[in-house]
Amino acid sequence: MSRIGKIPVKVPGGIKVTFQNEEITVEGPKGKLQQKYHPVIEFKAEGDIIVVTRKNEEKQSKAFHGLYRNLLNNMIVGVSNGFNRSLIINGVGYKAEVQGKLLLMSLGYSNDIFVGIPEGLAVVVDQGGKLTVSGIDKQRVGEFAAQIRKLRGPEPYKGKGIRYDDEIIRRKVGKSGVK
User: Fold this and answer.
1) Residue 179 reports pLDDT greater than 80
2) Which of 52, 104, 152, 163 measures 20 to 30 Å from 169, CA to CA?
3) Is-contact 88 71, C-beta < 8 A?
4) Cβ distance 80 to 11 under 8 Å?
5) For the chain, give me the number of helices (H) and strands (E)?
6) What angle do CA 38, 44, 50 make, to 5 degrees?
7) Is there a contact between 40 and 55 (Cβ–Cβ < 8 Å)?
8) What pLDDT does residue 54 have?
9) 54, 61 in Cβ contact below 8 A?
10) For the chain, percent helix, then strand, then coil, each to nearest 5?
11) What was the pLDDT predicted at 142?
12) pLDDT band at 20, cuts 50/70/90?
């Protein structure tokens, strides 16, 4: 039995979960999410708990078992609470600003960078150089945060660039002046 797959998923009040035509649909106060699933996986709703099972013991089925249980749990958390990913912009003159559905970033290049904010995501920039990406879909929030970080990754000598809030950058010692 999959260690993750055998854990039942708790559905809080106000959230509606349906399984039809090999598709999971989760509706909650923050929105609606849909996900197709493989027919080898079965979902059984027992009150406010959903149990995920598989039809056989093949290796691929075992992998799907844990995968779809976690996807279902992430969908439920997303429509009830949402997901956030925080980034820190560090460097002299490095800054970000939200203009409508565009994110304007000055990252030390000769031109400013304009990044379109995808539908369903929200970006908030505060004065301390902290940028927060939030939304109901965990995969989309993480992907967009990774695209922003990729524009100017953190460098190990001065620590300039964009890094995740919980990321630790190992600093290196620069050249030493030897006479």
Assistant:
1) no
2) 104
3) no
4) no
5) 2, 13
6) 100
7) yes
8) 92
9) yes
10) 20, 40, 40
11) 97
12) very high
- The DSSP H or E segment spanning 96 is strand 95-99
Q: What is the pTM of this model?
A: 0.90
From residue 30, give the alpha-carbon distance in Å to each of 14, 33, 76, 78: 11, 10, 10, 8
The residue whose two tokens read 């290049």 is 109
Q: Tell me: the pLDDT tens digits for 103-147?
A: 999 999 999 999 999 999 999 999 888 999 999 999 999 999 999
Short-list 134, 97, 127, 130, CA closest to 115: 97
Q: Is the C-alpha dihedral spanning 163, 165, 168, 172 positive or negative?
A: positive
Question: Could you tell me which of 75, 51, 70, 53 has the C-alpha nearest to residue 62?
Answer: 53
Residue type, 119: E
Q: 84: which strand partners?
A: 134
